[in-house]
């Protein structure tokens, strides 16, 4: 048997002839390994801890389970037509009506972009038809992340119909499989659920078209044989970079093997590919950790900041967003007053939320005006540029809200372009939050949105932040633009249309800060993050609820992008009353902002806010931006404490946050073991953002990392909503 091992490549572009081979791609700590069998099929062998001895894989003859005449191993990209009836990654309907696809390896290419990324393309061709796919594997060595995606080519003389085309396939074999995924609803996003997978299929999906991450996120964590732990054990994470319909299938088959397919949801999405056309799937991002969830999250955060987020390692400005402070009810005086107060307490960016536009149909509630993106002259007679100048005069930057994919029936836009609205012929259109959706498959609509934003940003030069909202999903799917036989292209073409607009805006306005928002956390995925600096995590700003939501979000997505605002008490969503310090301490675990009317703060609250913001800028923001997250106590633990820590990459500094989220017996305190510090160094501990006496007996003292990791710190927080923040600084003398 001839052996080719592809795990390190020199040269820009090389081609190997096919043979019985091992095809492997490595990161620093993981390997993904395929073989090519005697019938030239690409077989999935292994994904996990790095294995240097690739040769051993060439000895594997077959995973054949039943029939000795046929090799029914798990194909690396299973199609319909071979093997048993597990869910296939690809189904095609050929012009002849043939439904079978059989792929064989025709070529393997390596593409070297830089020394930190390995990229292999495996070309797989159908044995009968002139159809080919490229299976891409891109390994980010330092971050232990592998991206997988497909490009399909139709070289046949007639069009083909693609029934489904997933981005990736993984295969595992263990006694037990435990799946963590994220589920929720509006203002209640990203609740963590862990379940043992049983026989059959578990499906995570969205068919909403827009706001696809509100009820389920296209990401997961899988562990084998035992449930996932924070600091030890193997686990695998996956996240699909796609903001449209998605489906992730976990199929535990009749031999107790687990097959994982991830990609665009095939639901009503048959896609026609004409002769010569190609279709590229979204990327599926995988990571492997042998050191539990903590390392897995850090892999995703490091990869996300470096490769998948705009300005991943740059500090984000502290925002005052007008929404919960004024809702639709504002005028120039109210806004300039808010800016005065914001500037006084150290905020850096004022963001004007919903309500600033529409004249014939003024946007005074959510029932009118969406689509009419001209300044409301009654509320803002001197225009947006007046507000921008005012903000600048106070040393603030200025940002603005927009919801460009949507239209209210009560709008000039709906009157002028009813054909631009997503609709099904002959049916009454159903509104959601009084609004309808524009058809982004239509290039005219894409141009309208791009031009609207372009003119908003050029007429009002000085807008440095755009909050892009989207407050409904797709229901009565249908496009007046797409031909009748391509109505099923809607879902994919809508998301591609959205990405076209994002791309054009980003290339003209590279400095612009963009926040992705969709009724809160409805678009938190690596597809949209590629064009944004941050996401609005949830419309729920209750700090207790946020500890849960942000815990879930930050298992996968970077804290630097997690917008987290201090809002009023009682909270507008939950009615819960919490101390201002608790609200600040929670918001400071992410990208700090405020979302209230500063006029309503008492004098001592203003003083506290001022000092908290100063502390955040000086000590906390740098570590959230560039450091590593270590979770110490999960909100999901029964004991009702929560703790997390950010540690600088060189381990010389850390910030520890601790929260009491329940009522505890008197003198019962948490002991926090500070995994993440360097055991051989010494750290001075100082409580910051403090109101009363310190909650740690050793405040201002120096401790060894060894002590803090193994013995831990006992912190006196036991009443409901007590909280504490500590700065740890390495002491070298
Ligand atoms: C939903 C967003 O999540 C809120 O922050 C706010 O912008 C409203 N929409 C405005 O309509």
Written account of the structure:
This protein is an alpha+beta fold. The protein is 20% helix and 31% strand. The chain is built from 13 helices and 39 strands. It is globular and about 80 Å long. It binds (2R,3S,4R,5S)-2-(hydroxymethyl)piperidine-3,4,5-triol (DGJ). Residues 323, 353-354, 401, 469, 471, 517, 519-520, 536, 539 line the site of (2R,3S,4R,5S)-2-(hydroxymethyl)piperidine-3,4,5-triol. (2R,3S,4R,5S)-2-(hydroxymethyl)piperidine-3,4,5-triol binds at residues 323, 353-354, 401, 469, 471, 517, 519-520, 536, 539.
Structural class: alpha+beta
The total count of strands amounts to 39
CA(first)-CA(last) distance: 61 Å
What would the average pLDDT be, to the nearest integer? 94
Attached small molecules: (2R,3S,4R,5S)-2-(hydroxymethyl)piperidine-3,4,5-triol
Low-confidence stretches: 1-19
* Largest beta-sheet details: 11 strands, antiparallel
Give a short summary of the structure.
The chain has 13 helices and 39 strands. The strands form eight sheets. Strands 1, 6, 7, 8, 9, 12, 13, 15, 16, 20 and 21 form an eleven-stranded antiparallel beta sheet that branches.
């Amino acid at each position: 048997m001839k052996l080719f091992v592809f795990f390190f490549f020199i040269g820009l572009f090389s081609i190997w002839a096919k043979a019985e081979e091992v095809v492997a791609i490595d990161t620093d700590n993981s390997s993904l390994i395929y073989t090519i069998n005697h019938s030239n099929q690409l077989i999935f062998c292994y994904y996990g801890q790095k294995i240097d001895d690739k040769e051993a894989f060439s000895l594997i003859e077959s995973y054949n389970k039943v029939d000795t005449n046929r090799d029914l191993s798990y194909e690396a990209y299973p199609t319909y037509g071979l093997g048993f009836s597990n869910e296939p990654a690809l189904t095609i309907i050929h012009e002849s009506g043939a439904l079978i696809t059989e792929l064989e390896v025709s070529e393997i290419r390596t593409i070297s972009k830089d020394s930190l990324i390995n990229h292999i393309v495996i070309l797989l061709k159908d044995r009968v038809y002139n159809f080919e796919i490229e299976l891409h594997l891109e390994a980010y060595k330092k971050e232990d992340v592998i991206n997988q995606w497909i490009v399909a080519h139709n070289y046949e003389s007639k069009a083909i119909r693609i029934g489904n085309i997933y981005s990736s396939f993984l295969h595992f074999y263990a006694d037990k499989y435990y799946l963590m995924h994220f589920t929720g609803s509006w203002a209640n996003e990203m609740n963590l659920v862990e379940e043992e997978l049983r026989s059959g299929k578990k499906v995570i999906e969205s068919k909403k078209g827009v706001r696809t991450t509100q009820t389920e996120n296209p990401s997961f964590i899988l562990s084998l044989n035992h449930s996932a732990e924070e600091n030890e054990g193997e686990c695998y994470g996956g996240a699909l970079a796609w903001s449209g319909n998605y489906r992730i299938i976990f199929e535990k088959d009749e031999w107790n093997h687990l097959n994982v397919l991830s990609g665009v949801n095939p639901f009503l999405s048959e896609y026609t590919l004409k002769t010569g056309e190609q279709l590229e799937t979204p990327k599926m991002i995988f990571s492997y950790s042998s050191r539990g969830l903590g390392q897995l999250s850090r892999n995703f955060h490091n990869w996300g900041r470096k490769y998948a987020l705009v300005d991943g390692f740059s500090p984000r400005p502290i925002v005052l967003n007008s929404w919960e402070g004024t809702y639709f009810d504002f005028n120039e005086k109210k806004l300039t007053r808010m800016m005065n107060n914001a500037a006084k307490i150290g905020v850096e960016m004022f963001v004007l939320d919903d309500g600033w536009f529409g004249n014939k149909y003024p946007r005074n509630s959510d029932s009118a005006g969406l689509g009419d993106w001209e300044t409301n002259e009654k509320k803002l007679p001197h225009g947006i540029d007046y507000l921008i100048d005012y903000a600048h005069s106070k040393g603030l930057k200025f940002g603005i809200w927009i919801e460009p994919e949507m239209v209210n029936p009560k709008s000039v836009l709906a009157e002028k372009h009813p054909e631009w609205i997503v609709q099904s012929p002959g049916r009454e259109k159903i509104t959601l939050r009084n609004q309808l959706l524009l058809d982004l498959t239509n290039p005219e609509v894409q141009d309208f949105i791009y031009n609207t934003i372009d003119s908003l940003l050029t007429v009002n030069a000085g807008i440095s932040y755009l909050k892009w909202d989207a407050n409904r999903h797709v229901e009565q799917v249908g496009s007046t633009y797409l031909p009748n036989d391509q109505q099923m292209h809607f879902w994919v073409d809508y998301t591609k249309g959205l990405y076209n607009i994002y791309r054009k805006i980003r290339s003209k306005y590279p400095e612009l800060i963009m926040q992705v928002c969709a009724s809160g956390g409805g678009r938190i995925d690596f597809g949209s993050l590629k064009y944004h600096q941050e996401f609005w995590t949830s419309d729920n700003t209750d700090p207790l609820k946020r500890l849960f939501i942000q815990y879930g979000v930050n298992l996968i997505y970077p804290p630097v992008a997690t917008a987290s605002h201090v809002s009023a008490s009682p909270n507008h969503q939950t009615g819960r009353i919490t101390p201002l310090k608790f609200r600040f301490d929670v918001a400071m675990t992410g990208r700090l902002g405020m979302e209230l009317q500063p006029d309503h703060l008492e004098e001592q609250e203003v003083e506290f806010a001022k000092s908290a913001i100063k502390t955040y800028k000086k000590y906390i923001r740098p570590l959230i931006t560039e450091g590593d997250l270590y979770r110490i106590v999960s909100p999901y633990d029964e004991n009702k404490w929560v703790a997390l820590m950010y540690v600088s990459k060189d381990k010389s500094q850390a910030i520890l946050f601790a929260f009491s989220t329940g009522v505890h017996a008197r003198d019962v305190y948490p002991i926090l073991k500070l995994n993440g510090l360097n055991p051989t160094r010494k750290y001075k501990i100082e409580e910051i953002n403090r109101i009363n006496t310190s909650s740690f007996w050793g405040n201002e003292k120096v401790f060894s990392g060894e002590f803090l990791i193994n013995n831990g710190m006992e912190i006196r927080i036991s009443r409901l909503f007590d909280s504490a923040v500590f700065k740890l600084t390495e002491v070298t003398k």
